[in-house]
């Protein structure tokens, strides 16, 4: 599920307390490792381990930052719907 090539990605991780965190990165594997090592976002530091639930690829940093904001504005249920429809 983790993209191996570098690019522009928006992702959602589920924290150990079942909360969701949305972020932007150019390297999903590296970012996931950072979150789980406690070096990621301040929000996820006390909520490890985190599990990757959703990844969306785009063509630019601008796209990624805009899409991250769009997803962050969604409700918890709408975010879950993004990654549950793929099951």
UniProtKB/TrEMBL annotation:
Q: Which Gene3D superfamilies does the record match to this protein? A: GIY-YIG endonuclease (3.40.1440.10)
* Domain GIY-YIG: from-to ranges: 6-81
Cross-referenced InterPro entries, in alphabetical order?
Answer: GIY-YIG_endonuc, GIY-YIG_endonuc_sf, UPF0213_domain
- This protein's UniProt keywords: Endonuclease, Hydrolase, Nuclease
Q: Which Pfam families match?
A: GIY-YIG
Q: Which GO terms of the molecular function aspect are on file?
A: endonuclease activity
| UniProt record similarity statement | Belongs to the UPF0213 family.
Q: What's this protein's name?
A: Endonuclease
Q: Which organism is it from?
A: Novibacillus thermophilus
Tell me the organism's taxonomic lineage: Bacteria, Bacillati, Bacillota, Bacilli, Bacillales
């Amino acid at each position: 599920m983790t993209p191996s090539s570098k690019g522009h990605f928006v992702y959602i991780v589920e924290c150990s307390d079942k909360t969701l965190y949305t972020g932007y990165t150019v390297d999903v594997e590296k970012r996931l490792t950072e979150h789980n090592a406690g070096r990621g976002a301040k929000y996820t530091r006390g909520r490890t381990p985190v599990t990757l639930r959703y990844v969306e690829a785009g063509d630019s940093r601008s796209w990624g930052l805009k899409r991250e904001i769009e997803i962050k504005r969604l409700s918890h249920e709408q975010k879950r719907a993004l990654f549950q429809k793929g099951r």
